[in-house]
Amino acid sequence: MTRRGWLWVAFALVHGFVAVMGYVLPHGPMGDVYLVYEPWSGCALGFAEYCGASGREIVGITESWVYPALALVPMLAAWLFEGLVSYTPAWAILVTLVDAVAFAVLIGNGRSRGRAVAAGFWLLFMLLLGPVGIYRLEGITVPLAIMGCLWLVRRPWLASMLLAAATWIKVWPAAVLAAAVVALRRRLAIVGGAIVVSAATMATVVALGGGRYLFGFITDQTGRGLQIEAPISAVYLWYSALDVFGSQVYYDADLLTFQVTGPAVNAVIAVMTPLLAASVLALLLLGVWAVRRGAHVIRVLPALGFALVLALIVVNKVGSPQYMTWIVAPLVLGLVLDRGTWIRPAAFAAGTALLTQIVYPIFYNFLMTDHPAWGVVAVLTVRNLALVVLFAWSVLHLVRVAVDAPARRSGQRATSPRSAPSVIERTSS
Q: Among 33, 401, 412, 414, which is most exposed with the fewest C-beta within 10 angstroms?
């Protein structure tokens, strides 16, 4: 069997296994699908059994919503398969099909070793992270982002439109779009594609009468507390585990998440959003510095995209386990372009995925108490420290890309990424 054939066998096995494990592992890792995606989309379609006493409501149109407007589209699309199975497996089928398209684009004809390694990494990460990577909206946005990353240089309009659509499902792909605007020369195409999708989305929502809720996902996020999985919450988790300083874990029924409270928690909540914005701005300026020093797009793009996505995870007061999937797209791009540089951070990231699954869903019940078990808190703390290490590496790597740029610009010999496709070299020159 060819390399491409083995990759497709692995694709089928991993997706089948992870989808089934959603039913086997504790704490319903596919809960979001049947608890919120199905009722939201069912009511939007007018199914009375999913609508409350107030009648038909469409999230993002007739009421405020925590997600951007296009998040409802994949939820509705899953109903195409609901006639064959129930809604939850229908969602898994939808995610598998979208993944299959992105996987086909990634492996191509199967001859590129860099693409094969990137595909293998994606499957390994999915396996180690577990069902939460499939049974969440990230199951749709990650493959869209991977295709967008792979097409940014050769098909910037299409790539930008894919990334913009993914952003209007879940905000995180905006980090990849921002990295592309900084790193690529065809910035007008990147911005233009994003504007087309955004304008069409906004016009549709306004036409349907949902203009007042168009950006509700932004205002709803700024008012959130400290989620237990977020790195910043580690101190409060330890306080709660040790039963000191009045800290404890509590459940937010409106947002369906577990959060922490304790001394000065409101001050910490208030500072997190400005700190995240400042971190993103600093990284963008660092990327601009690298580009102006002459750094090549194949070095800047994955480095800046990886750093920005990690900033959205590390410097964030929300830290849901599915957020880990955000780092897959820039890592896949890095492995395709320069696997020698990116193989180590990719392996390290795979380790963080495993730690995440150990915490959620396997031992999550030990966190869902007023005073969580210190052993599980320790595992989560190690995972969060690993994310901080990855973030530090990404920033240092981006600095190194900028510092090394003058050697290439001045005509000195520099080592080029071994697996960078020549078409990218030609297009970006």
A: 412
Smallest CA-to-CA distance from 232 within 255, 280, 264 is with: 264
Taking the C-alpha atoms of residue 213 and residue 235, their distance in angstroms, rounded to an integer, is 35
- 322, part of any domain: yes
Instruction: Classify 8 as helix, strand or coil.
Output: helix
Q: Which domain holds residue 162?
A: 3-407+419-428
Dihedral (CA of 206, 212, 216, 219) sign? positive
- Number of domains forming the structure of the chain: 1
- C-alpha–C-alpha distance, residues 355 and 300, integer Å: 29
Q: Return the closest-CA partner of residue 112 out of 419, 428, 424.
A: 419
Three-state SS for 250?
strand
Q: Which residues pair with 227 in a beta bridge?
A: 259
What is the spatial distance between Cα 199 and Cα 230, in angstroms, rounded to a whole number? 33
Mean pLDDT of 210-218: 91
d(CA 14, CA 124): 8
Question: Could you tell me how far CA 398 lies from the centroid of its own chain?
Answer: 20
> Does residue 306 lie in a domain region?
yes
What distance in Å separates the CA atoms of residue 328 and residue 393, rounded to the nearest whole number?
A: 16
Q: Is residue 77 exposed (0-12), middle (13-18) or buried (19+ Cβ within 10 Å)?
A: middle
Judged against a pLDDT cut of 70, whether residue 420 lies above it is answered with no
* CB neighbourhood size of 364 (10 A): 21
53 found inside a domain: yes
- Give residue-wise pLDDT tens across range 252-307: 877 778 999 999 999 999 999 999 999 999 999 999 999 999 999 999 999 999 99
What is the tens place of the pLDDT at every residue in 16-65? 999 999 999 998 899 999 999 999 999 999 998 999 777 889 999 999 89
Residue positions counted in the chain = 429
> For residue 412, is it within any domain?
no
Distance between CA 224 and CA 365 in Å, rounded? 22
Bigger pLDDT: 256 vs 327: 327
